[in-house]
């Protein structure tokens, strides 16, 4: 094992003259960093953004682009939904739990409509139409989608309303989102230094963070931040050492990342005495197609159903990978398969097909009679429009009849599984630095570290042990904005 690079803080007294100076220095130019940079610059601060890659965007630009927003946005109203912050809070408290951060979550829900309008003001386009089916992301350009709000048990906890807001484009919308945020940051007057990797925090004699030491190719570059440093450099899914220490459930699976989520921001801050929180919390995505499993079923390696398949797909992914024996199989019959639009199949084709369930059991290596028993029970109740075991919505229930097809999540979407870990699952980390609602990083005594802020996946945000699409980009930008404003308001003179 190669030795870890040093992330120990550097004393201000040992720097001499800095190469660059600013009021607020933002480390990382994904969505959270962009939000922090924009707000700091809009507040009148001189802002510099460091980006380790050759261009901004990060993992945010490669994401689906969902923003989890609600409480009565104009898109929701146009689609006929009368949502409230209280309903949004009740749903997210359950879906992001157990142990969601209720202080941050309450602020996020109460400020959600204003946050949506902030995106609109930055030029992010939202079509006022609904994609009315479960899914990871729609193949249409609809601006609103369900993310499990109408599935049991969540439809008994809060009045269901779709809250997945999406920039107007089919499938992956993160590129459009970041294009608008990058332009807004430039228009606000912030400067960007690319190919620049922050390695160490600079600290003055009073323990205040005063800047960073960075590396640009083989050159060392120093940055003075008079007001504060905002760490928005992502999580740590690309750092297997940190995964082994904190979130080993993701080891051996694909990584949902642009490859730069190496935990550097978290490591720099904890070397200074920053506290971390929820470091074992993760998102797991099993590449089982919601369009298939809603019309059929998802079974584990013993041929058993284990959840209502119309929930948010990240929830059936967590249940599968963390609690059920694999491998996992999506089972559907010919009638159900024929209902699915080709674009909604995500380039996936059946791995096995058979006239009888006994043949499928043999092909899949399932215990004899296991799948037959599962389907017999499912069909008996589906004929009555019921699912007493897991309570799938009746609109997806009907008896399954041969011939049958099996989709293997390990095949991935659009063939991606053939190039990754091959497990059919991937994920990213949710834990990070302990921050106040204004992005101030706390130390292990619970006190803010002067001059240090964090947002996005570098920080521990609203999540407990659950996840819903759009809560990364939503949380990161919402609290990134607060961190940027806070850092700008505390700029100090030389």
UniProtKB/TrEMBL annotation:
GO molecular function: steroid dehydrogenase activity, acting on the CH-CH group of donors
Name of the protein: FAD-dependent oxidoreductase
Gene Ontology biological process terms from the UniProt entry: steroid metabolic process
Entry keyword set: FAD, Flavoprotein, Oxidoreductase
Organism for this UniProt entry: Actinomadura darangshiensis
FAD-dependent oxidoreductase 2 FAD-binding domain segment(s): 23-472
Cofactor requirement: FAD
């Amino acid at each position: 094992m190669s030795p870890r690079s040093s992330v120990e803080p550097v004393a201000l007294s040992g720097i001499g003259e800095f190469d660059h100076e600013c009021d607020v220095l933002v480390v990382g130019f994904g969505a959270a960093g962009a939000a922090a940079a924009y707000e700091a610059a809009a507040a009148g601060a001189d802002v510099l953004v460091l980006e380790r890659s050759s261009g901004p965007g990060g993992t945010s630009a490669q994401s689906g682009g969902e923003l989890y927003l609600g409480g009565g946005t104009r898109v929701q109203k146009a689609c006929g939904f009368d949502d409230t912050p209280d309903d949004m809070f009740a749903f997210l408290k359950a879906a992001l739990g157990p142990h969601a951060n209720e202080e941050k979550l309450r602020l996020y829900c109460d400020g959600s409509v204003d946050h949506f309008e902030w995106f609109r003001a930055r030029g992010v386009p939202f079509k006022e139409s609904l994609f009315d089916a479960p899914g990871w992301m729609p193949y249409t350009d609809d601006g609103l989608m369900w993310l499990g709000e109408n599935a049991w048990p969540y439809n008994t906890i809060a009045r269901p309303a779709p809250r997945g807001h999406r920039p107007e484009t089919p499938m992956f919308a993160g590129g459009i989102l970041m294009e608008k945020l990058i332009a807004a940051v430039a228009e606000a007057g912030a400067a960007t230094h690319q190919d620049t990797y922050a390695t160490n925090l600079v600290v003055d004699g009073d323990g205040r963070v005063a800047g960073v030491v960075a590396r640009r190719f083989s050159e060392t570059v120093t940055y003075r931040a008079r007001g504060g440093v905002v760490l928005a450099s992502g999580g740590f899914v690309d750092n297997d050492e940190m995964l082994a220490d904190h979130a080993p459930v993701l080891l051996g699976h694909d990584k949902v990342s642009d490859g730069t989520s190496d935990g550097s921001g978290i490591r720099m801050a904890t070397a200074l005495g920053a506290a971390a929180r929820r470091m074992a919390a993760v998102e797991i995505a099993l590449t089982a197609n919601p369009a298939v499993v809603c019309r059929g079923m998802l079974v584990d390696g013993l041929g058993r159903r284990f959840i209502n398949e119309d929930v948010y797909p990240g929830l059936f992914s967590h249940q599968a990978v963390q609690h059920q024996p694999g491998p996992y199989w999506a089972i559907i019959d010919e009638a159900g398969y024929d209902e699915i639009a080709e674009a909604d199949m995500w380039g996936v084709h059946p791995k096995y097909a058979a006239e009888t369930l006994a043949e499928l059991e043999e092909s899949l290596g399932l215990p004899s009679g296991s799948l037959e028993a599962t389907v017999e029970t499912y069909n008996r109740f589906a004929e009555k429009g019921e699912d007493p075991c897991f309570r799938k919505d009746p609109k997806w229930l009907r008896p399954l009849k041969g011939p049958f097809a099996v989709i293997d999540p390990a095949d991935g979407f659009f063939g991606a599984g053939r190039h990754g870990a091959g497990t059919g699952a991937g994920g990213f980390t949710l834990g990070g630095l302990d921050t106040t609602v204004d992005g101030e990083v706390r130390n292990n005594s619970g006190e803010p570290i002067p001059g240090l802020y964090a947002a996005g996946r570098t920080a521990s945000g609203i999540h407990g042990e659950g996840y819903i699409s759009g809560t990364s980009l939503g949380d990161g930008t919402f609290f990134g904005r607060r961190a940027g404003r806070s850092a700008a308001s505390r700029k100090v003179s030389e």
